[in-house]
Amino acid sequence: MKSIHVASQFSPLPGPRHIDEGPNSGQEFREKLLEPAFRQAIASGEELVIDLDGVEFGYPPSFLEEAFGGLVRLPGVGVDLVRKTLRFKAESEPLLLKEIDRYIVNANSLKPPIVKRP
Amino acid sequence: LIFDVAATVLGAVFLALIIDRLVSSETLPLATMVTAGTTLLTGWLIQKGLRRQGEIDKISTDAFARSTNRIEELITRCLNVPSTTLSTDGALLQSLQLLANEITWFISLADRLDARCAEHDGVEPTYLIFKESLAKGLHVDVRSGSQAAAALRMHVFLAQGYTCAAILKKKVDFSVVRRSTPAA
Question: CA-CA distance, A15 to A39, in Å (whole number)?
Fold first, then answer.
């Protein structure tokens, strides 16, 4: 079973939604770590465990929505595949599980704020 | 325990003295006095039992009151930030995390004491809306957060009220709390 420990493999200080808004963004996490591991997990028929414990303060909602809601919005992915493949560990803040599930389920109905890109 | 025993002994001595006085006065029959004494003793035991149960009930209702106070403090702390605060601000995220965990405790305590009501179901979703309303953008949105906070406060208040009412209706089994709480 593959796993990603956000605090040690990405950053202990998760950042904003998009790359151009600041460091350690949800978009950066999704593109660099989550999506490749997700694709690998699907190919090998395994589950991918996301360990959310160990970050310095907590997770901004925009980071979580962009990372996991953004994953659902990728072509050919969808809610069912994400829910089937990802497992979460959040012992330091159990409510994160419900928060992330909400972003996954509502990924196509929640409208992320539009940010002007350079 | 020592004070209880001392009070009981003292009470018994006084009762014996009174009975002795009344018996010697030959104005009241002994059976009436024994009945009166037994009634007094039974009444005293009942009120003592009720008072003790009242104190025990207060433990759980106080726990909910304290939890509600902490939730209120944390909501206020989350909202009491300048509008220029980034949503990634460490102090803000820490307050939100503490608030989330306090809500988890608030609900699990009601579950464990078998005093959960429909209002509890609304607390977590309302918290998630609050967090999102406050920190969904690059900067905090205090106005939107305040509106969501009102709904969260209402759910917590109602849940606390219904829970305390439920607790007072029945005896609390504290061992359930210990059994279902993971060791630190």
Answer: 24
pLDDT at residue B35 in the model: 82
Which amino acid does the sequence have at A10?
Answer: F
> Looking at residue A31, what DSSP letter applies?
I
* Beta strand A86-89 pairing with A48-51: parallel
Torsion (CA) A39, A70, A115, B141 in degrees, nearest 10: -140
ipTM reported for the complex, 2 dp:
0.87
SS3 B117: coil
Q: How many CB pairs under 8 A join A and B?
A: 62
Angstroms from A48 CA to nearest CA on chain B: 24
Low-confidence ranges of chain B (pLDDT < 70): 1, 23, 25-28, 54, 56-59, 170-184
Selected for mutation to probe chain B from A57, A91, A99 (highest B CB count within 10 Å) is A57
CA distance B135 to chain A (A): 6
A101 lies within 8 A of chain B by CB: no
A34-71 pLDDT tens trace: 999 999 999 999 999 999 999 999 999 999 999 999 99
Backbone angles phi, psi at A89, to 5 degrees: -125, 120
A26 touches chain B (CB under 8 A): no
